[in-house]
Amino acid sequence: ATILVLHGPNLNLLGTREPEVYGSETLDDINARLSNTCLDAGHHLMHLQSNAEYELIDRIHDARREGINFIIINPAALTHTSVALRDALLAVDIPFIEVHLSNVHRRESFRHHSYFSDIAVGTITGLGSQSYDLALQAALQHAEN
Ligand code: DQA
Fold first, then answer.
1. What residues make up the catalytic site (predicted)?
2. For domain 2-144, is the CATH number 3.40.50.9100?
3. Which residues contact 137 (CB under 8 A, 6 or more apart)?
4. Centroid of ligand 1 to alpha carbon of 75 (angstroms)
């Protein structure tokens, strides 16, 4: 199977961005680990980080044409704002897991609402970069069934 990992705005700054909230690993560290896990399981992983909403939307549109089986997405701040990104995921009808590094529920109230949680297969929040690893484990299981 092919799994696509999408990272939203500002996640390119991981490692230096509020490390007390988001940890000290960089996005490259996380992507490399996910790619290795996926390869070891005999599957293929693609990833994209973008600060532009339209690039994430276009990538999701392309995912359907490419036959991507599963999406793991950290929409970052777009979690709380983007009907357009939600609609893109609904349009392509590819199952996805929503992940967050921080526990959005113990932060500001504007982070408590997500435009994605009610249409996701599941959500994982607050476990740092392990949120991605656990999502990948679930995605691989999902893809194999
Ligand atoms: C985040 C949480 C969001 O509220 C925030 O805007 C982010 C990162 C997380 O992974 O914890 O940029 O999605």
1. 22 (proton acceptor), 100 (proton donor)
2. yes
3. 37
4. 7
